[in-house]
Amino acid sequence: MATSIYVPCDTTALSMGADEVARLIEYHAGARGVDIELVRNGSRGLCWLEPLVEIGTATGRIGYGPVEPDDVQALVDAGLFDGKSDHPLFLGPVSDMPYLKHQQRLTFSRIGITDPLSIDDYRAHGGFEGLDKAMAMTPQAIVDEVKSSGLRGRGGAAFPTGIKWQTVHDEPWQQQKYIVCNADEGDSGTFADRLVMECDPFMLIEGMTIAGLAVGATRGYIYLRSEYPVAHRMLDEAIRRAEGGGYLGEDVRGSGRAFHLDVRLAAGAYICGEETSLLESLEGKRGLVRAKPPLPAIKGLFGQPTVVNNVLSFAAVPFILDQGGRAYADYGMGKSRGTLPIQLAGNIRQGGLIELAFGVSLKQILEDFGGGTFTGRPMKAVQVGGPLMAYMPVSQWDTPMDYEAFAKLGAGIGHGGVVVFDDTVDMGAQARFAMEFCTVESCGKCTPCRIGSVRGVEVIDRIRAGENREANLALLEDLCETMVEGSLCAMGGMTPFPVQSVMKHFPDDLTA
Amino acid sequence: MHRSEQVSQQSGGAGVPSAGDWTPDMIRDEVDALKHLPGALLPILHAVQNRVGYIPEGAVAIIAGMLQQTRAEVHGVISFYHHFRTHPVGSKVIHVCRAEACQAMGGRALEAHIKARLGVDYHGTTADNEFTLEPVYCLGNCACAPSIRVNDDIHGRVTPQKFDRLADKLTTSALDIR
After folding, report:
1. pLDDT digits (tens, 9 = 90+) for A356-409
2. Contact A387/B77, CB-based, under 8 Å?
3. Domains along the sequence of chain A with CATH
4. ipTM for this prediction
5. What's the rounded Cα separation, in Å, for the pair A247 and A241?
6. Architecture of B92-177 per CATH?
7. If I label A80, which of A117, A135, A152, A292 is the partner at 20 to 30 A Cα–Cα?
8. CB distance from B105 to chain A under 8 Å?
9. Predicted structure pTM score
10. Are A191 and B143 inside 8 Å of each other by CB?
C-alpha cells in the first residue's frame, strides 16, 4: 500500500518552500521505488514548523519540520518514508505535540488533517453535518441555535451573531436577501480567515449556506482581499466542487432551497474590511463608509437585507448546528462564549494558530505557546487585535482574553491577532505608523480621519524632533480625542488607540 | 500578472512599454464577459488589469460607456483602490509588507534594503523594466515575517540576503527567456 505523505499547501508553507519540498519528495520516492501518495493538506497552524511534512504510519501521523528543500535528501536517507526518528527535524506524532494538544479546536478541528479540496475528506471528518441538521430545522430554530451559542462577531466588533441573523430573518421573505462574508482580513498579525479559506474552505461554504437557510437568502458573496491569491484559488475550486456535489446551487442537497455563492476580489483597500465600505465596494463603487442607520441587516447590499459576518463567525456555525449552541457556549467566560482563534505573530519563536476558550491569559499564550521571542530578546510590547488596537505593556499581560476585560483596559481583542515586539522596538515609531497607516487607508469621507491622521503624523514628528514638546503632546492628546469622538467609523475612531497607548505606557519612547 | 510579463517581453522588456500593448477590442471583450454581474465594475477592472497589466487611460471611456456610467465614476473607483494601477509595470511586481508583524521582525530594514538594491522607491519600476516595487499592508503570513510577494508567490522570513538571492534568480531567469 502506498505511504501517505502530507505536504501543506497554505500560504505560509508555500512561502517557506513547500512546493519544492513536495517535488523533491516525489523525486526521491520515484528514485527509490517507494510507492507514495502525496497529499497537499492544509496547515496545522504550527507556522514556525512549516513546511511541516507528515508521514502516515500504523501508529498515526509522524511529523518533520520545518523542512526546507535542502533537507529533503538527508531526511529521505534518514528513513523519512518509514517515519523514522533519526533526523533532527523529527517531531514525533503530530497530534501529541503540546502546542496542538493543549488547544480546544472546535472550529479548526480539521485543518492540516484533511485535503482542503476533498469533499469526501470533509465529510469523513464531520463536515456538512451541521448543514444536514439545519436543513431539517425551521429558519427560526437555526437562528435560535446560533443565539444560544452566544457567538459574537469574530471580525472585531463582537456583535451577537444570532441577533444580527434574527434581524435579517424578520425582514419580509418575498425579496432578495444576501449573505456576505467579510474576508478582507487586513489587520496585521491575523491570518485565521486565511487558514479557514485555504485549509478548510468547505467549512466556510457550509456556514454561509446555513446562514442563507436561516434568513431566507439565496445568494452569497465572499469579499476576499486581493492579497490572498492562494485563498482565492482554493475558494474558487471549493465552490466549484460544492456546486458539483449539490451543496450549492438551485437545490441545496435536495432541500428545494437555493444558495448561490461567489467570490468577489477586493482591491487592496484596508477600509473595505469595514462592513458598509465593503458593501459599497461589492456594488462596484469607491469604498466609502456609509452612515448607520440604516443597518446592513435591513438595508445592506444593493439596499436589501444582508447578513455581513466575518469568516470566523461563519466558520463557527457548522459546529454550533452540529453539536448544538449549548455545546459551544460551554466554553468561554462571561459574555465571551465559545473559542477564540488566536493568531500569534511577529517577533515570536513559535507563531501560529491557537484556538482556545475565551479566558486564557495573554501571558499563557506568549509563554506557554509562543516560547519567547524569535530573536531571543525580552518582549517589550504586544499589539492585540490589529493596527487600530492598543499596544499592551508587560503589566497587562495577565488579562484574560475576554472582550469585556480587554475593553476595560482601553484595549480590544479584535480579530484575535497578537503581534509581539522585542525590546529593540521604538514605540514612538509605532505610534507614528498608526497615524501614517490611517493617512494611507482612510476612505476620506469624514474629516477627523482624513485630515486628523495627516496632522497626527506631523505632530508626532514634531514631538520626536523635540519641537515645542509639551504643547505638541497636549495637541496630540486633543487630536486623538477628536478622532475618537468625531470619526464616522472605526478607522478614524480607533487609529488613536495605539497612539494613546504609547503615550500612556511608553512615553519615553515617544520623546526619545 | 502573467499577461504583463508577456506584454513587456513583446515590447522588448526594456524602457517604457509602448502604448500599443492593448486594443479597444480587448477591453470590450472583458467588459462584455462580466457586465451582467451585479456590481460589475470591480470584477471588470480586475479582468482588464490581469489582461493588460494595468488599466490604460483609454480604457476608462470604453468601460464607462458600456456600463452606462460616467468616466468620472470609473476613474474614481480606479483611483480609490491601491491594487489598480494606471501605468505599465515591470515584469515582476514586488509587494513588500510594511505592517506591524513584519516591522517586529526587521521589516523596516528590509524595506530600505530592497529599495536600495533595486534603486527605486515605492510605485517605481527599475530601469531595466524587471521589477516594480509596491508597498502592501499585510500578506497574512505574519507568523513567518517579514514577507514579500512577487507576482502571486509569497515569500516568508525574508532577510536582505534571501532577497538578493531571489532577485538574482528572478533576473537571471528573465534573461534566459530572451
Report:
1. 999 999 999 999 999 999 999 999 999 999 999 999 999 999 999 999 999 999
2. no
3. 3-101 (3.40.30.10), 119-328 (3.40.50.11540), 332-422 (3.10.20.600), 427-511 (1.20.1440.230)
4. 0.96
5. 9
6. 3-Layer(aba) Sandwich (3.40)
7. A117
8. yes
9. 0.95
10. yes
